[in-house]
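Data availability (excerpt). The following record was deposited with the supplementary files.
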Amino acid sequence: VRRVGGDALRPKRLALDRPVVLASGEAHRMLIDLAQIYDLSALDDYLVQVDLIWKNLRYCSDPRNIEIVTGLPITSLSRPAPGEIGLLRRYSLSYITRGHKEVLFLSVDEERTSLNYGVFALGPLVRVFQPVIELSPQGLLTVVHQSGPRQYTRSILQVTPAGVRLIDQQYEVEKHEKNKESAPQKSEKKK
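Predicted structure:
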């Protein structure tokens, strides 16, 4: 990883804990969180390239461009993680436009040091109703937002002193009954 027009970034650790060994004709696919390996906190354009070393030969992928941007803020909540005293975390919701759609993101930062615990894409956003964000005493962070004309997404994240992870997303669709003037009723949850 390097900045466009700049030097390569120093990795904080190796991308893999151990080598991946493949037999002839075998394929392997993996997802790597670059923010765990490189400091991508600066808003900038970066080039990402994968290098593969085999029998002392280096094979390089084509470089891909990624841009680190801030989203447009919606709301935020400041609370300590369960079990922490004195360290506030800010749970911020923002959105950006991608491919003619708005996408909701949650960013979790320590307020005093700006240490980022993660950025989570929570899905499409329809900005009719304000998203709701709540943190329970047990460390469950819940975000509910409108994700379609009559669809809502409930994202549940586990917050601990060590970090934050997305543990579940549920989708709810409002149903309208014909010939009734009542408010919409929610259907069963889909996973």
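Summary of structural features: Residues 144 and 154 are 4 Å apart (CA to CA).
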